[in-house]
Protein 1
Amino acid sequence: MLKQYLQFKLSQKLSPQQIQLMKLIQLPTQAFEQRLKQELEENPALEGGKEDKNDGLDDDFDNTTEDYDDNESINTEDINIDEYLSDDEIPDYKTHANNYSADDDEKSIPYASGTSFTQHLISQLNTYRFSDEERDIAEFLVGSVDESGYIRRELSDIMDDLAFTQNVYTTEDKIDEVLQIVHQLDPAGVGARNLQECLSIQLHRKKQRPDVELALQIIEKAFDQFTKKHYKKLMQKFNITEIQLKNAIGEIEHLNPKPGGSYSNNNRIVEHVVPDFAIKIVDGELELTLNGRNAPELHVSREYSNMLKGYKESKEKTKSQKDAVMFIKQKLDAAKWFIEAIRQRQQTLFVTMSAIMHYQKEYFLTGDERKLRPMILKDIADEIEMDVSTVSRVANSKYVDTPYGTKLIKVFFSESMTNAKGEEVSTREIKKILETIIEEENKKKPLTDDALAKILKEKGYPIARRTVAKYREQLEIPVARLRKKI
């Protein structure tokens, strides 16, 4: 049975300007310039540069848009404004292009010029003599090399793939035979199936000296003990002195664990960071400036506004004129909204960064990371009376040029903990002290996490061993056993 009833419902809708503003705020300077260029290309009613005041029109931006804001002057007879505004007040030009989530943003992939790593390896294969079958196998093996330089697949899987995809029926022994030739390609160690094989290939390439021969024996016969740094067991196993072991380990440490990286790094596109803000110290006070590239000069096209005036003044209004004026009004609305969104973006960026700068004033004046105060997104959001998500958009993608280098803004945020004196200190301060302690430790007897926790407690930072382990992992510092040096 069908029933009719009334229901009150609270819902929250974002206006087109809010949607546009959120997207613009999260863009760093370079991406913002691309977005600006795109909007200028797509919207002929939006113009860049200084507005020409010598065209006989003295009215400013607000006066320019006044005529098309007046519905009575445009919505004449059968022209319906709702035809170009949807129910949620978002015009068509927004819904088909920009009204989607950040996860769906189109990502342009830059391509480096030059020869790829795979092509570099295939070109080397041309110096070897192969049968047709061997050539197919060699090219397939080279195509299986990842960007680190390894072939991380079993020979049996490669054999099956060759049969199914290349129509090449062979044996694992034949594949292994061709793989030995691939191991002769440069850079040394390429095509290895694991780290042990990679280091072994590189050592075989070296001129055989006592230190190299010992290093080769360690890698091939005692790799597990070497990785666990059981130096005493290695000295007993090979009946060698500590100096001999130290020299052999020195040879191993000079090898490249990722041979593919040495080639790919040379062809990587260098990403230039453009600071969105700059902080300078002037007469002992901090001075914040917003990168001028974030404040472009934009204005609404007077030519388009004049078209509306012409329509208003014309006595006879044809259907084509009405269609044209609807298009013009859409574009003028879009231009006005975009200009306003950029103005709000500039204001939001400056206000947010200014609050962060004053919150971390001691750090920006000294450059000492130990002066960083505990700060979370909510602290700044409360300070500027904006949403936490807005602060997050500014912090996660923007850089600031400081007297101590260019920094990602989010690094100034950290949790807090209470020290022995009852003061709140930043976890970044503790990490910095932990890093210093580990740098100064005796590498022959590295400090365990328990020992590190004890030292930090003596310095006035009572934290648990598991917390020390967490901070150490965040700093990408290995456990004590792996920090040991002979």
Note: The chain has 24 helices and eight strands.
Protein 2
Amino acid sequence: MDTARPNRLSPPGPQRWPIVADGLKFAALAAVLSALMIHAIQGLGYHWQWYRIPAYVVATTPAGIVFGPLLRGLGVTLQITAVSLVLAFLIGLTTALMRLSGSILGRLTARTYLELVRNTPLLVQIFFIYFVLSPVLQLSAFASAVLALSLFEGAYVSEIFRAGILSIHRGQWEAAFSSGLGPWHTYRRVILPQAVRNILPPLTSQAISLIKDSALVSTIAIYDLTMQGQAIIAETYLVFEIWFTVAALYLVITLALSLTVAIMEKKLTVTR
């Protein structure tokens, strides 16, 4: 047997020239977009004042260096996002299990919740919870924002969980039941761990959507990142500089989340 013969089933190694060609195409596209942006900016006749922006990110006071209003708003955005993300996952998982249960009442309740939430705008839901429910339930603006975001995103998360659970082969259920596991332990030990691995990318997309949707809570006087940006613009008229900075901060958050989930997904793939 000729042991020097290469294995035809092995994946091909990285090819140098296609990578270089892709890099050149990307550089050309970036150059064209940059030229168009520079031309559009010059046509505006806008007086840029980027030197004033650092003071709104990190401020220097006699007591030392403190967070500026943009970073303080970013902290509020992260708090709202973190709490809403946990609640959205819990609501989504519960709704998915109710839709897959044998209870007619459970399926009807879950279906009603999904149809109501998915077919109405998030802004309307925020206003309804803040102006109608919060006076009755004595909810703060922060709690109203978290509740609205959790319910809205939880409806979409539930469909992601349901699709992940249904993607598990029927044999997994049969093997778990034959081992003496009940429905609860089957979900917890067999089905959900496999489902989460399959649905991690769409869950990440939904989490990023939640971060961007959190900008709407500024409409109920919560001084998150977006509201802080609006307040600074009203005071300084630094329209483009502030909005570009706000967009960059949102981009940093979403990229960090995407990178973290990518690392988690890689570790889960290795441990399979």
Note: The chain has one domain: 69-271.
